[in-house]
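Hello Y.,

Per our agreement to keep a running log of every chain we model this quarter, I'm adding this entry. I've kept the format consistent with earlier entries: sequence first, then predicted structure.
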Amino acid sequence: MPSFNESNSTTSGSLNEDTLARLVTDALERTAFVMADPCDDPDRLPPADTFAQIDFRGPESGAVDLRASRAFARNLAASLLGTDASEITDAQAEEALRELANIVGGSVITALGGDDCRFSLGLPALGNHPPDANATCCTLDAEGERLEIVCTHRRAA
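Predicted structure for the entry above:
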């Protein structure tokens, strides 16, 4: 199966750490004007304490989990709502992270399915799935705050 790449975003492919990071950074820039970069030293970022997840089904089934610092979720909500992060409630921060899970989930299934994207997304929810050693993971530094993305997917039986 060919790898997903920028020059042919409609070709189905595999999902590696670099592709996952690019999908998320593009989504953040496009939807919330939040800048993020892959982080080589995640230990220097605040811990993840806010979690959102979304499941998908199709030729492959799996899930996307977002694990973020509370400040990241507040900053995300503030960007989406056009307000100051100090005015954001916990509920708004959690809703913003669920919305980002929905956007990233859509990007993941497009990367996996290409033009023939026969996938369906579930509803984004708070929480995260148990760790999976086969998951594709990346940690982003989003303006000094943590955003971890964990994507599990397996061929449907």
